[in-house]
Design goal:
The chain is of the alpha+beta class and 183 residues long. 27% of the residues lie in helices and 33% in strands. An eight-stranded mixed sheet has the order 1-2-3-4-5-6-8-7. The longest helix has 15 residues. It binds coenzyme A. The site of coenzyme A has 20 residues, from strand 5, helix 3, strand 6 and helix 4.
């Protein structure tokens, strides 16, 4: 799948491969390396290339989409879905994550990636898709709205970063036949 905006680079979306893992990890680390402030002695487990490869393999096994956005042959972003909850009743609902390389923000990469992930999740037979977004993350909220998500929940003070409580919004959209028929 390829998308073009005037004056923006051509973005191609495709399923991720193991070869994409170092580039995806670099993007992930760009957003997490600044930490969240004092964790009171808690040391987060480092996340490395092998962890990400194992996660990809596991998602593939469960037919959960994991896609990358490519610009000029370089990975400019990635997005994937996991099960919303592990209990069997929730098997038709996914939650997702999306990350765009800091050098490519505002270039339409998110607008190419998220619809492709939505499409892939619908094709895989999932019926509902959920994203949790920091309430201050205007770019992500707008992107999700533009891709058919609507706010279904507001979760006050669920994160603590740099000395402040932060709220999240929960945004959801249906996929395929949604809840119009049973399974
Ligand atoms: C959220 C994110 C994925 C958006 O990706 P992006 O490639 O920069 O977004 P796009 O250029 O495709 O723009 C998508 C929409 O977001 C909005 N947007 C983009 N940047 C914005 C900004 N800085 N402020 C406000 N809105 C913005 C625009 O309304 C745009 O809609 P349009 O297509 O009508 O113009 C990206 O900012 C990101 O990876 N952020 C860090 C990780 C993150 O927050 N992930 C989401 C967690 S839920």
């Amino acid at each position: 799948m390829t998308s073009e905006r005037p004056e923006s680079p051509t973005v191609t979306i495709r399923p991720s491969t193991d070869e994409d893992v170092p580039a995806m990890l670099a993007i992930y680390r760009a957003y997490t390396s600044h930490g969240v402030g004092d964790l009171g002695g808690y040391v987060p487990t480092p996340f490395d290339i092998e962890d990400l490869k194992a996660r990809r393999k596991n998602l593939k096994k469960h037919k959960l989409p994991h896609v990358v956005a490519v610009i000029d042959g370089m990975v400019a972003g990635y997005a994937y879905a996991v099960l919303f909850r592990k209990r069997p009743a929730y098997r038709f609902t996914v939650k997702h994550s999306i990350y765009v390389h800091p050098a490519h923000l505002g270039n339409g990469v998110g607008r190419a990636l998220l619809p492709a992930l939505v499409e892939a999740c619908g094709q895989a037979g999932f019926r509902q898709m959920i994203g949790y977004i920091d309430s201050a993350n205007e770019a992500s909220r707008r992107l999700h709205e533009a891709c058919g998500f609507r706010q279904v929940g507001y979760l006050p003070s669920v994160a603590y970063r740099f000395g402040a409580w932060c709220d999240s919004v929960m945004m959801q959209r249906s996929l395929g036949l949604g809840d119009s028929v049973g399974v």
